[in-house]
Amino acid sequence: MIAIVARSENGVIGLDGGLPWRCKGDLQFFKSTTMGRKIVVGRTTFEGLPPLKGRELFVLTRNPDAHFEGAIAVSDPADVPADAIVCGGAAIYNLMIPRCDQLLVTTIKKEVEGDTFFNSHWLEGFEPQQTIEETDEYLIVAYKRPV
Ligand SMILES: NC(=O)c1ccc[n+]([C@@H]2O[C@H](COP(=O)([O-])OP(=O)(O)OC[C@H]3O[C@@H](n4cnc5c(N)ncnc54)[C@H](OP(=O)(O)O)[C@@H]3O)[C@@H](O)[C@H]2O)c1
Question: Which of 2, 6, 29, 146 shows the smallest number of beta carbons within 10 Å?
Answer without folding.
Answer: 146
